[in-house]
Specification:
Oligomer: single chain
Helix content: 25-40%
Radius of gyration: 16 Å
CATH superfamily of the largest domain: Beta-grasp domain
Strand content: 15-25%
Largest sheet: 5 strands, mixed
CATH class of the largest domain: Alpha Beta
Structural class: alpha+beta
Strand order of the largest sheet: 2-1-5-3-4
Bound molecules: FE2/S2 (inorganic) cluster
């Protein structure tokens, strides 16, 4: 068993840890850093529930090892709202458009949308909708998620339910 010392910025706070080489980033975030908003579904890159932002990009944390995050800046859903509790605009859009039911898929959906909307007031609607194809939701029928994505792009949902 190999162990490695890593240092990762998680939601703006530095975390130092010694981890097994085989430990996934999602397990590290949940068990070592306490970020249980990182949900683990399929554990092989299909469902998108474990998505976090690593150095600005949406990443499936079940497919990345914790050691690969050494020196990186990671944002989980816990780090998205402002310190005073004001929701991130993606969280607000999901709330307003009823984009969630049980909430299991939601952190992953939110983090993907957050990564794609970062730094722009008018993200590309097609890109947002295409990215949602990488998330499995068993509850919503996707229409609320779709409306939230379109709201972020400044577009009306059209035929959405
Ligand atoms: S748990 Fe990572 S993609 Fe499903
Ligand atoms: S809201 Fe339940 S899986 Fe998406």
């Amino acid at each position: 068993m190999s162990e490695h010392r890593i240092e990762v910025s998680i939601n703006g706070r530095n975390h130092k840890a010694i981890v097994e080489g085989r430990k996934s980033l999602c397990d590290f975030l949940r068990t070592d850093a306490g970020c249980t908003g990182v949900h683990v579904g399929c554990e092989h890159g299909v469902c998108g529930a474990c998505t976090v932002i690593v150095d600005g990009a949406a990443v499936r944390s079940c497919l990345m090892l914790a050691v690969q995050a050494d020196g990186c800046s990671v944002t989980t859903v816990e780090g998205l709202a402002a310190p005073d509790g004001t929701l991130h605009r993606v969280q607000q859009a999901m709330r307003e458009e009823h984009g969630l039911q049980c909430g299991f898929c939601t952190p992953g959906v939110v983090m993907t949308l957050a990564a794609l909307t970062e730094g722009t007031d008018r993200p590309d609607a097609e890109a947002l909708l295409a990215a949602m194809s990488g998330h499995i939701c068993r509850c919503t029928g996707y229409q609320g998620i779709r409306r939230a994505a379109l709201r972020l792009a400044g577009e009306a949902a059209g035929d959405a339910a």
